[in-house]
Design a protein that fits this description.
The chain has two domains: about 30-65; about 80-175, no CATH class. About 65% of the residues lie in helices and about 0% in strands. It has helices at about 30-60, 80-115, 120-125, 125-145, 150-175. The chain is elongated, with a radius of gyration of 36 Å. The termini are far apart. InterPro entries: NADH_UbQ_OxRdtase_su10 (IPR019377), NDUFB10 (IPR039993). Keywords: Electron transport, Membrane, Mitochondrion, Mitochondrion inner membrane, Respiratory chain, Transport. It is a peripheral membrane protein.
């Protein structure tokens, strides 16, 4: 576009909107209310919040790295020690949930591998299939046939009976 030689003929709008200079003896009540609110409510709350954040920054706590101490197993509890029974039961429930999640994660990995590999899943996902078989067998050996109302005592008895059967089978094989 050619340079316009008659620039003065066109009035250009101002580049900045001028600020109105209001000169009155009465202050604006909105500014007064905002100032009072900032000093009375906002400033103390902001100060307390920043102080708390500084204190928390000194002591970082990562909840996802929390490690619970292991409590004695049910077989290690003394007779009549009901607190130990309760702690062992809670520990068993946590262990069962962890084992369930492990099985679920391995199952999801196998599903993702099968989806990714498509028709080559049998040869390329053999490692995941073997791992799922091992994890599922271990879970079934420990928690299988306990049902919904299984607890640490029935699980311990199940493991004891399984060990006794293995000893009998080993003794019969050696004779």
């Amino acid at each position: 576009m050619p340079e316009d030689s008659k620039r003065e003929a066109y009035n250009l709008p101002p580049t900045r909107t001028p600020e109105s200079d209001r000169i009155t003896s009465v202050p604006n009540p909105v500014h007064l209310i905002q100032t009072v609110f900032n000093y009375v409510v906002d400033a103390p709350i902001t100060f307390v919040r920043e102080w708390i954040e500084r204190q928390q920054a000194k002591n970082k706590f990562y909840y996802y790295h929390q490690k619970f101490r292991r409590v004695p197993d049910l077989s290690e509890c003394l007779e009549g020690d009901y607190l130990c029974y309760f702690e062992a039961e809670a520990q068993w429930r946590r262990d069962r949930l962890v084992d369930q999640q492990i099985v679920e994660i391995i199952r999801e990995r196998l599903g993702a591998c099968k989806h990714r590999e498509g028709p080559n899943q049998f040869q390329n996902c053999a490692k995941e299939v073997e791992l799922l078989a091992q994890v599922t067998k271990a879970y079934q050996d420990r928690y299988g046939d306990l049902g919904v109302h299984g607890n640490a005592r029935t699980c311990l008895m199940k493991q004891k009976h399984r060990m006794m059967e293995e000893r009998k089978a080993k003794a019969n094989d050696s004779q």
